[in-house]
Design goal:
With about 120 residues, this protein is mainly beta. It is built from no helices and 11 strands. The strands form 2 sheets. Strands 2, 4, 5, 6, 9, 10 and 11 form a 7-stranded mixed beta sheet that branches. A hairpin with a 6-residue loop joins strand 4 and strand 5 (about 45-50).
Amino acid sequence: VQLVESGGGLVQPGGSLKVSCAASGRTFSRLAMGWFRQAPGKEREFVATISWSGATTYYADSVKGRFTISRDNAKNTVYLQMNSLKPEDTAVYYCAATLLDTIATTGAPYEYWGQGTQVTVSS
């Protein structure tokens, strides 16, 4: 499975940004997808995850109510809509995929990872 993120960039505090992750190499509808992020000097942390069908989602407390994960199985793409962005959301955002139809909030179950896209929240 190949995962390619896009859509990162610079945004002002309070602004919005939508990052995407395009998958190839495997039946996308049989992959649970997750978003993680890593800020400079910090460990990678879980952001959000979505099940095979998209019926189930789960978020880190730090982004709940501000971020929305979604998927389009016809386009083999998962999205992360980020609203009300804060400077502490600045990080490299990684897309990850697992063959398990599960809600996984740690990195271990995810077999496939993208290269990451930088999101910077600053005025």
